[in-house]
Structures are given as C-alpha cells and as structure tokens.
Amino acid sequence: MSKRPTIIDVAKAAGVSKSTVSLVLQNSSSVKEETRALVHQAIKDTRYVYNRAAANLRGAGAGLVGLIINDLRNPYYTELAVSVQMKLAERGFATSIGNSDEDPALQEQLIASMIEHGVSALMIAPAYGGDVAPFKDIQQAGIPTIQVLRSTGFDTASFPLFSMDYDAGGILATEHLLENWGNNVAFVGGIETHDITIERKSGYLRKMGEAGLDPVSFHGKANRRFGYETALKITRDRPDIKGIVTFNDLVALGMLAGFAQAGVKVGSDIGIVGFDDIEEASQCFPQLSSVRCDVKTFGQQTADVLLNWVEENKQPKAQVRYPVDLVVRASSSKT
C-alpha cells in the first residue's frame, strides 16, 4: 500500500512552503489567487485528503497577530511587546509572542509556526543574519508585516519599517556632551556592522565631524557587562575621555557600575548619555541622562497601523521614523 500523501507532499508539488498550504486549506484570504490555484492543483495531483475536523481542533488563527522580538530580556523591547499586545487586545485581536533571542534560525522557526497557525499579521523586530527565505514565505502567504525598531535590509515596500529617529538622537546626545564636557567624546556599545548600530552612531559621527574632532568608538555587545568592562578600560587606557554616548541604556548602566568601582564619579568626572530611556534610567544612581524613545506610544500607534492594513487594506508608508528627545539627568548635568 502506498503512503498516504501529506501536506509536505502538497507543498513540494506546488513549490510553496508547508505554511502556505496550511493557509490555503484554512481558506485564508491572505493567499494570492495564483498561489491558491497552484496549491489546489497540487492537492489534486497528490490526491491529498484534508482532515478538517482535526484542523478545527487545533484552532484557527483569525484575529491573531504574531509578534516576534529579537531580545525580550531587554526592557526596551519588553515595553514594546506590552504596548503592542494591549493595543491589539483593545481592538479585539490576540497576540502570539515569540523571542528569537538574536538567533536567525529560531526566528525562521517562529515565522513558519505563526504562518502555519494562520496569523492575520506579523510585527517583527528582526534578528541579524540568516537568509531571506522566511520573509519570502511571508510575502508568498500575503501576510501584512511590519518591521519595527530595526531593519535587516529587506524591501521596505513589502515590509515597511517603523522605527525611531536614531540619527537625531545621536546628534542631541553628542551636542549636549560637547557643550558640557569638552571635545573628548566617545561612542560605546553595539555590534559595529549591525544596521541599528550604524544608525544610532550616525548622529554622533556627524556632530564630531562638524566639530573637526576625531571619533572614538568601543564596539561590542549591547549589554551591561560590555559597559562595565569598557568603563574599566577607559579609566585605565583613556582617562582623557570625558563624555560618552552609549548604544543603549543597558550599556550605560553597566558603565555606571564600572566607573563606580574605578572611583570615577559619573556626573562630576565624566558625563554619560544613554539611549532609549528605559524605566531604570530614572531609578539608578546617579540618574541616567538618555535619548528618550517613547516606545509605548510607538507600539500602540504602530499596532493601529498594522491592524488598519489588515482590516481596511491601508498600505503603510515604506518607512516611518518617530521623533526622539533628550532627557538630561545627573549622569551628564555636571554637578
């Protein structure tokens, strides 16, 4: 007796992903007509029989939005997830949240799973690395998808990018430090080749260039440990540095601890400005100056845009940047 054909056999015959076949079987309106026709022909050719009763037990994905975050341990992205989830719930949608942990293979798995479960839309803060295959699956399935806060270079016409004006934030932070702490200002944190690091550093480089000053950078993981270790390194090797713009607040918080251990008084001996203005920035000692990115408002408004795309077919702009501002606190106010 020959083996009973499976959904994988149908996908191979149609030249599409398993997730796309699942959407067709669920009669999802998100699949393009030409793709739907290919799948139906493959079903006939393979003599595949769809067990609708079993599928119903697994549940449908109507009213479900997938949210994939690159690092949910970062409070900045946690606040984004909360604000998006609350707005989706307000409009009657459930949220499926996945943490890719900066792993493109895990991100691909999460995307495939969410497509298979028939999500109505996707919002993704993408991990770096990997290939475009998962995004091609999204495109083939016709699922409205917005990239948020960071981009991996995918076509923004197909996958609109909603983010912050990082360049302006870097300018504000650097101007403040140059005016109050002199010309020796450094940038600390972030993987040098990542687009988001390039964006967050761009304003710093612009202001240093305009002032005729040489930029100084210390690149690495955007976490507390790197900030802590770099503070000790600067104390030891570059005591001439008097102002620091960090990639994010986590790096800055690590630097506060490192300088404290080294006996350097932040706010008196050196000025530090973080990036994001997470809640902890106003609760640490000394309180941390930071480029404020209002991620709560950002998350709510971007969720609205995504649902308007789903419900009213209102295609978003290819790229949207939300404004930022500088919150000056004790870490750079030169007390």
TrEMBL record:
The keyword Nucleotide-binding does not apply. Transmembrane segments: none annotated. Residues 5-59 form the HTH lacI-type domain. Keywords: DNA-binding, Repressor, Transcription, Transcription regulation. The keyword Transcription applies. One of its GO terms (molecular function) is DNA binding. It comes from the Bacteria. It holds the Pfam family LacI. This is LacI family DNA-binding transcriptional regulator. It comes from Parasedimentitalea maritima.
